[in-house]
Amino acid sequence: MEHLSEEEFEAILEAALNDLPAGVTDELDNVALFIEDEPEDGNTSLLGLYEGTPVGERGQAGFELPDTIFLYRNNLIAFAEDREHLRREIVITIVHEIAHFYGIDDDRLHEIGWG
């Protein structure tokens, strides 16, 4: 797909956030979403990343740093065939990373179609 401006990407991201399945964000607590151009290690196939402690493994509430979900703009754009595909991949990536917050691993995500 051709290059997108930050504004175009942000508009597609906003549409994708509105398309998240009902209930997927209902229990999210202390999670921040960040958009980065690419992963620090230069991995060109990684579309998103969850960093944090899954909800089932948390200790005493209130004493943990926020969990983070990263979306990698350049990798998503390179992966997408067009703007609609990009929007769908952003939705899939966000749901996938939120699932890690809930403690769902990659194998299970692939089984249920969010891999």
Strand and helix map with partners:
Blueprint: H1 6-18, E1 31-36, E2 48-51, E3 67-72, H2 73-79, H3 83-101, H4 106-111
Short description:
This protein has helices at residues 6-18, 73-79, 83-101, 106-111; strands spanning 31-36, 48-51, 67-72.
Supply database-style keywords.
single chain; 115 residues; alpha+beta; Zincin-like; 39% helix
What does this structure look like?
By secondary structure, the chain is of the alpha+beta class. The protein has one domain: 2-Layer Sandwich (Zincin-like). 39% of the residues lie in helices and 14% in strands. The chain contains four helices and three strands, in the order H-E-E-E-H-H-H. Strands 1-3-2 form a three-stranded mixed sheet. Helix 1 crosses helix 3. The longest helix is centred in the C-terminal third of the chain and has 19 residues. The chain is globular and about 45 Å long. The two termini are 22 Å apart.
> Rg to the nearest angstrom?
14 Å
What is the CATH topology assignment? Zincin-like
Number of helices: 4
Helix content: 25-40%
In total, the number of domains comes to 1
Structural class: alpha+beta
CATH class division: Alpha Beta
Outline type: globular
Which architecture per CATH?
2-Layer Sandwich
- Low-confidence regions: none
Distance between the termini: 22 Å
Oligomer: single chain
**Estimated share of beta-strand residues:** 5-15%
Strand order of the largest sheet: 1-3-2
**Main sheet: strands, sense, barrel:** 3 strands, mixed
Average pLDDT taken over every residue: 90
